[in-house]
Structure formats: C-alpha cells, structure tokens
Amino acid sequence: MDKILLMLQLQNQLNDATNGEDWTKGLTKNGKTINWKRCIYMECAEMVDSFSWKHWKSITAEPDWANHQIEVVDVWHFIMSLAIENYTQMMRGGIEELGIHFSHLDAFSKIDNNDKFFASQDVVIEKVESLIRASISLDELDLDALVENFFDLVVMSGLNLETLYRLYTGKNILNQFRQDNGYKDGSYIKVWNGDEDNVVMKRIWEENADIKPDTLYKELVKAYASLTKS
Fold this sequence. Notes:
The chain is mainly alpha-helical.
C-alpha cells in the first residue's frame, strides 16, 4: 500500500508541475486537452514493438524485456493519471483513498510478492491488447478492470511491486529532469553517448541500489552536463 500511495503522490506532483494544478479537469495550464486514454493505448502500441510479433521480419528475435519493462512503467504513469482524474471528477475521494482502493483489488496480491517470471510473448501481447481495448472503449470507464489487467501485465513482465516502484520512481525523476531541460521546446537531447536516457537512468539505479530520488536527479544532471559540453 505504501509504495502504491507514494507512486500516486509522485505522479500527481509531476502532473501539477507539468500541466498545472487543474489538470484533473482535463486541460493543461495552456488550455490543451488532456486525453489519458489515448496516452495509454499509444504507449501500449509501442510496448508491442518490444517483441518480434511481425511474421515477416526478425521472427527469431528474443523479446527486449528491458525495453518492455520501461514501457510498462510508462503506461503506469498514464493509468495513475487517469485514475486520479477519475476519482477527482467523480468525487470518489483523494489520492489516499485511491491508493487504498488499488491495494484492495484482487490482482494487487499478485504483484505484492517476490516472484519473478516472464510469460510467453503471445500471452503478454494479448494482455497488452486488453489494455488497449479498455482504453479505446466508448463505454463508461471500468477503472478496476483496467488496473487489474495492468497488475496482471506487471507480473507477466518479470516485475513485482518493488521493482515497479523502483523503475517508476526512476522514470518519474527522469521525466522531471526532461521537463527542466527543454523537453517541451524540443531542445532536450534524449540519446546520451549512444544510449537512450531511459537506459542511463536504469543503469544508475542498478549500480546504486540504495540511491535516493534526489541523488538520482543529481546524477542525471552530472551525466547530462558532461554530454552537452562534449
């Protein structure tokens, strides 16, 4: 429960900083429409490309599980945002109530353990497509079904609550760093000496198991400063 609540709080803070404090009304501070469902299905489509699903190309290639896990975390950003927006608009409660509700879902027990395994490519893709169907449906949002399917995907992707939290926290800090360094105006450099910034962030986490979020931000600053000077 604590890690779920912390992730919801971090996502809310990121959205406040990026979109303005009224983002739950569906608009950014600049008046641009926010569509979290579209964000979810577009990221899910990118997730499928972590696998050799094309019957005419790279048919024997192994799944890129590392990239897939990053994409899972990206989708989690948008699912949490949609959930916070829904709870606010429907007056169902605040972030704490939402965190409690998530922790009471049946699928939560599946991620709150130390198990780790990877499902088959076809099974994972089917689960991703179930998230796409839920996000493009014109029916009333079934938030519980969406989150339950996502938690199932977490388990199928070799993740659990602890690793989801670590990757999410790292990506959240990276997103803040991007916003602070020209991501919106297009001046941000996403590939650092041949590696995408996602990979650099993940490497810093893996090499420093006990690193704190503020320290991670400082490490990103140092790495980026070295890059932009070269």
